[in-house]
Design brief:
It is a single chain. It is built from three helices and 20 strands. The radius of gyration is 23 Å and the shape is elongated.
Length: 295
């Protein structure tokens, strides 16, 4: 057998198909990271200096990576194999790339990027392998993107690409809620119990923070159509398997009541048209009971 020690490894991925190891290393605090592509015999096939982050595709045949070069940032794809090919998707950007995402079969990618390193407005990008065109969702100019909201960078809703490559799902936050750390109504030492409240005060205090949550939204890159799916009025959302429909509900609708889990009204939203209609009313669904949804 062969033994090769790669020092200062920060992250790594293995391609079973090509029997290649991809390692992200950081030699010391003064030097920047680098990506090393090597085979199982320890032979180096590729080195990328000034590396930022990386994410291997689900089929383990490609690598999405970023490069931080002084004041600019670039993102590209390595096609692994005996002859490694590099495709640059975007180069010379001032803002860093975040939330690198692969479609589950490795056919497309999506990621966030700011216009500069200090920009609070993040743009979502989408790229289909082989099309050589980068689509951009800019919250400032995209029709349907609600004013006063921004793309979420936290993990409540990860970026997801639909199986037909037509839609990208993401989370959005009200900007003032992102920056606020507390709700004075429920952080006060004085408890206020209202007869019209849906929950008792301790539960209201617990849920006041969780309800200031990221809302689910959908973007269709090819038409630049954007739509918010969940809302404060109907906050819970589940996507259908084909990504063309969403099931919406509000757990508070029939509160207060005596069951551990309250029944709900369930709505189905067509994500191609934005139309929504109720299809189950005052219904309690158990985890083992499937929702009767047809396309």
């Amino acid at each position: 057998g062969h033994k090769k020690i790669v020092s200062d490894a920060v992250n790594y991925s293995y391609s079973k198909h090509y029997k290649m190891l991809v390692v992200l290393t950081k030699p010391d605090k003064l030097k920047k990271q680098q990506i090393i592509v090597m085979d199982l015999k320890g032979r180096f096939f590729k080195k990328i200096e000034n590396a930022g982050t990386m994410k291997i595709s689900p089929d383990k045949k490609k690598l999405l990576f970023t490069v931080d070069n002084q004041n600019t940032n670039s993102i590209g794809i390595l096609e692994l194999g005996p002859k490694i090919k590099t495709t640059w998707i975007s180069e010379g950007n001032l803002g860093k790339f975040k939330m690198l995402t692969w479609e589950k079969k490795g056919r497309a990618i999506s990621f966030l990027n700011g216009s500069n390193s200090n920009s609070k407005t993040k743009m979502l990008h989408y790229y289909v392998i082989g099309r050589n065109h980068l689509y951009c969702l800019d919250p400032k100019i995209t029709k349907g993107f609600i004013s006063g909201t921004q793309i979420n960078e936290r993990p409540e809703y990860t970026i997801t690409i639909s199986d037909d490559l037509q839609r990208v799902f993401l989370g959005i936050d009200p900007i003032n809620e992102v920056n606020s750390k507390s709700d004075s109504s429920y952080d006060s030492i004085v408890e206020i119990w209202n007869s019209s409240d849906k929950y008792i005060f301790p539960m209201m205090m617990k849920k006041s923070h969780s309800e200031k949550q990221t809302r689910l939204a959908v973007w269709q890159p090819f038409s630049n159509f954007f739509m918010q799916i969940s809302s404060a009025e109907i906050p819970k959302a589940m996507l259908s398997g084909n990504g063309k429909y969403a099931i919406l509900s509000n757990p508070k609708t029939y509160e207060p009541q005596f069951q551990y889990d309250a029944p709900r009204d369930f709505y189905i939203m067509n994500l191609l048209t934005g139309k929504k209609k109720i299809f189950l009313q005052n219904k309690k669904i158990s985890p083992s009971e499937p929702l009767p949804v047809s396309s």
